[in-house]
Design a protein that fits this description.
By secondary structure, the protein is α/β, with parallel strands linked by helices. The protein has 13 helices and 11 strands. 36% of the residues lie in helices and 16% in strands. The strands form 2 sheets. Strands 1, 2, 3, 4, 5, 6, 7, 8 and 9 form a 9-stranded parallel sheet that branches. The N and C termini lie far apart (71 Å).
């Protein structure tokens, strides 16, 4: 069975969330930009207002001057099923894995018809067993975000997923927008891997590339981070987003780090490779002045100079007190066989 996540290559997910602001054209533009930045996947959020919310839902942050309520905002974020299919098809054409977090069973049903290859469980849905059940029924991999959960709650969710025999990953996440460095929780990444024996990841809301680079050095299999075209865009997630230009920096950096991690250096074998450089950058024993045959070599007769193609400095003890067997000019190397 093909694994959704590769243990030797971090899946980089550009999370658009609501940065498209309800514009289908903007959503498609994000697909092009995320692909051009070198990410592996793009992720949206599928909100169906009537299925997941009520008009009484309060604002987390009252950011919108055009939506009377948060419910109205979710309504404005909706796309039709055929529009979601168009986004999926476009992502496929650009070589991106298409993902979208569902926030209702109706959203799961819609995305299942579209062709979603895996499910991202949002932090606030980890205890929503009915929603989890619907996702697990598909048999597709689960990416479990943990931003609002205690370890006991994660334990229960992981145990439940294990019972369904599907591939899963647990992602460290701190629900803060933007997330300051002291709350990223890099220390939890190896802990989650050891505790659950599965692939691990980071869902980053810092608005910078640094946590992703640091997490990849710890061997994460999946990284999700918010993306915007500019920090001057409108929307609640923009302060916690990197720009598409920064996403390109991040993907380049991650691939560089992976090359380092996947190619451990043998210091002994490496010495053979750098032998030509050693001769250029190291030094040899040379004559400090014109020396006649028969000279008994003393320190005052010798110097240590480049290149390193002759006797190395550590052989000085073998040369001192020995008699030259030939005339040697100043700066000429003292070679094996030149002394008795």
């Amino acid at each position: 069975m093909n694994k959704f996540l590769d243990p030797n290559r971090c899946m980089i997910i550009g999370e658009i969330a609501q940065s498209h602001d309800g514009s289908l054209g903007m959503a498609h533009a994000f697909i092009d930009a995320v692909a051009n930045a070198g990410a592996d996947a793009i992720k949206f959020q599928t909100h169906i207002a009537a299925a997941e919310s009520t008009p009484q839902e309060p604002w987390r942050v009252k950011f919108s001057k055009q939506d009377a309520s948060r419910y109205d905002y979710w309504k404005r974020m909706e796309f039709m099923p055929e529009q979601w299919q168009g986004l999926f098809d476009h992502a496929q054409e650009k070589g991106l894995v298409f993902l979208s977090s569902p926030f209702s069973i109706e959203a799961v049903d819609l995305l299942e018809k579209v062709g979603m290859p895996a499910w991202k469980v949002a932090s606030g849905e980890i205890s929503n067993q009915r929603l989890m059940d619907r996702m697990l029924q598909t048999g597709k991999p689960i990416l479990l975000s943990t931003g609002m959960s205690t370890l006991d709650e994660i334990d229960r969710a992981v145990e439940y997923i294990r019972g369904r025999n599907v591939e899963y990953a647990v992602m460290q996440c701190s629900t803060a927008y933007p997330c300051p460095p002291e709350k990223i929780g890099l220390n939890l990444i190896p802990h989650l891997r050891e505790r659950y024996g599965c692939a691990v990841g980071l869902s980053d809301h810092s608005g910078t590339i640094y946590p992703g680079l640091a997490a990849v050095t710890l061997g994460i299999e999946v990284l999700e981070l918010h993306v915007a075209f500019s920090r001057e865009m409108f929307g609640p997630d923009v302060p916690a987003s990197v720009t598409t230009g920064e996403l390109k920096q991040l993907t380049d950096g991650i691939r560089f780090i992976e090359q380092m991690r996947n190619n451990p250096v043998d210091k002994n074998g490496f010495a053979e490779e750098v032998l030509p450089l050693r001769k250029l950058f190291t030094k040899s024993i040379v004559a400090g002045a014109n020396l006649s045959k028969g000279t008994i070599l003393e320190e005052k007769h010798l110097r240590i100079k480049k290149p390193g193609s002759g006797l190395p400095p550590e052989r000085m003890k073998d040369v001192l007190g020995r008699q030259l067997l030939r005339d040697v000019k100043a700066d000429e190397q003292i070679l094996e066989g030149d002394f008795s």
